[in-house]
Design a protein that fits this description.
Radius of gyration: 18 Å
CATH topology of the largest domain: Elongation Factor Tu (Ef-tu), domain 3
CATH architecture of the largest domain: Beta Barrel
Shape: globular
Mean pLDDT: 94
Structural class: alpha/beta
CATH superfamily of the largest domain: Translation factors
Number of strands: 12
Strand content: 25-35%
Number of domains: 2
Strand order of the largest sheet: 4-3-7-1-2-6-5
Order of helices and strands: EEEHEEEHEEHEEHEHE
Length: about 260
């Protein structure tokens, strides 16, 4: 469930290859991409996200990926035979330096596809991606509010980094392992609340949100596991009276199921 609009970039399908990988925290692996095709990528910062295509076996089928991932593009994607069809997952740009693009993957075991791929990615491994825009709208409000779990950590950190330096508000970031905290480049007026859950996703962030005192009406951004994102939106709209148009939310994943 999400109310984030997809923006189909003119860059279309961008081909890239792995330059290096690094385990930045115990459960987070950073894969850096490079390649001449990155010159076509239009970097916008904040929580810019994309459809990442990982080859299955041979990389030949990456060339059959559509230029856009709307209805027509998705149907084209489904025409690639099973067994050779690239796996597509949604990820956020962690950083972009013109000739290199960083992606942070939650990787803590063998479950899923993208996380295990990231842990074994080697220099030269091919990938492709389709830019889908930014979810953060930065709407005019009395303050800002971010709620995220570990899957939304790259988005939250990117937004905090690129916010106006006079921005104020709160960021609630829930992790399953406190060792996965990263350095935050945030405006002085943004207070960061690091939480470590002991139960299901949202079990730390949602109670903290209910107890959080804020002045006026904030623009809110809630992303992560489906129950966390939907629960934050429901609380803000129904219990705090925040207008729906001031709450951006997206379920990046669901317990027992990867986001497609």
């Amino acid at each position: 469930m999400s109310n984030i609009a997809v923006t189909h970039s003119e860059s279309g399908l961008v081909r890239a290859e792995v330059v290096r990988r690094e385990r930045v925290t115990p459960n987070m692996v950073r894969v850096t991409l490079g390649g001449a095709d990155l010159r076509r990528f239009d970097y916008r910062g904040f929580d810019q996200w994309f459809r990442l295509a990982l080859p299955v076996g041979s990389d030949a089928e990456l060339s059959r990926m559509p230029q856009k991932f709307g209805v027509g593009g998705y149907l084209s994607y489904l025409r690639i035979p099973k067994g050779r069809r690239p796996v597509v997952r949604n990820y956020t740009v962690r950083d972009f330096r013109g000739d290199e693009l960083d992606i942070d993957f939650v990787a803590h075991g063998t479950e899923g596809v993208a996380g295990p791929w990231a842990t074994r990615a080697g220099a030269g491994d091919p990938v492709a991606f389709i830019d889908q825009g930014c979810g953060w709208l930065g709407k005019a409000a009395d303050s800002n509010l971010i709620v995220a779990d570990e899957s939304g950590l790259p988005a939250a950190l990117g937004i905090l980094r690129d916010m106006p330096r006079d921005a104020a508000g709160h960021a609630i970031i829930e992790l399953f392992d406190e060792r996965d905290r990263q350095e935050v480049d945030a405006p002085d007026g943004m207070r960061i609340h690091w939480l470590t859950r002991a139960g299901a996703p949202g079990s730390a962030a949602l109670p903290a949100l209910r107890e959080l005192a804020f002045t006026g009406v904030p623009y809110a951004f809630a992303v992560g596991e489906q129950a966390l994102a939907a629960g934050a939106r429901r609380h803000l709209v129904k219990e705090r009276g925040i207008p729906k148009e001031l709450v951006t939310f997206s379920g990046y994943w669901r317990m027992g199921r990867a986001a497609g």
